[in-house]
Amino acid sequence: MSLDTPAVPELSAQQRRCHLMLLLFTPSAPVGLCALSRINRVSPDVSRQDVADVNHEIAHFHALHITSPTPDEYQLEGSLYDRRQCLIHWLRRALRLTPNGVETLFIPRLNTCHGHWDTVYHSRQINTLLTDAERPLQRTFSEHNRQFILHFLHYCHYQHAHCQHQTGTLHTFAPAQQKWLRQKPEYALARQLCRSTFGPLGRERFADECDFITFILSVIKTYCYSPAAPESEQRLMGQIERVIDRVEILTGCHFSQRETLRQRLFAHMGAAIERCLFELKIDNPLLNEIEQLYPGLLSVTRQALKDLEQTYGLRIPEEELCLVAITFGAWLMQEGVVQEK
């Protein structure tokens, strides 16, 4: 009689790459090819390809590079700011795709680096601050976002304590970006989280960290409009109303489900404006297809967004423009308007 042992599920390519990035971000010696292959349960050749694919992605989106100090060993190169920008993306992805990897690969290595981070204390403090802020901010911090914020601030604490001599000082946002962040309702919460995370800081470093924490809170926000929304969000909805008006004029179409459309656009444009203001790139595999099939739709969308771009002092890149165009295209098709090849 034999007992069948359940097979260990094979990791997907995205899960393997998340593990690679978690290892590269943690304070240890360069990541060895053999160790990486063992953790991901794949051959060295597969691991080498994962490294190449991830290196291509982070070079394009985050200005970081994976280097090899010795053959078959890998480490991450880049500034404090670019590392944090990159970690926002990869930590959120890892918490979604391989949360066990975060708990077994990322957090233990941060904990063994220094003894100044009390996980229980900081978890309680940060969660209390987030809970207390939900009502005045009119937003809910999900369990996923709470985990992300806690782990990200843990990394920032490590980075502040141990990496400055290697990677320089934290990037200071441009004056226009600072103004944008410091006018946000989340800025007061960011100041509290900064004190809880770092303790006493010099004046300039405290300001920089508050700006960056406000940026984090903005990037992970899910936008949902309500009549009681802050003034900045009411202003955005006013701009979206004008965008819809412009599309209706340019296409000669009246949207019969306008309320649903404006809510959809608000949810997208709130996040898109943040990405544009801080030059965060996105990948849009549909861009080439939409450019070929619906050039007129893209042109109409670009024209309709001109006033919004001027109001916020930005230029919406083609990848973001395409997503807005797709939303309008879906509504126009319902009205029987889009007929392009």
Automatic annotation (TrEMBL):
GO process terms (BP): regulation of DNA-templated transcription
Domain PRD: 231-338
Keyword entries, A-Z: Repeat
Pfam families, alphabetized: PRD
NCBIfam families in the cross-refs: PRK11564.1 (NF008597)
Protein name listed in UniProt: BglG family transcriptional antiterminator
Species whose genome carries this gene: Enterobacillus tribolii
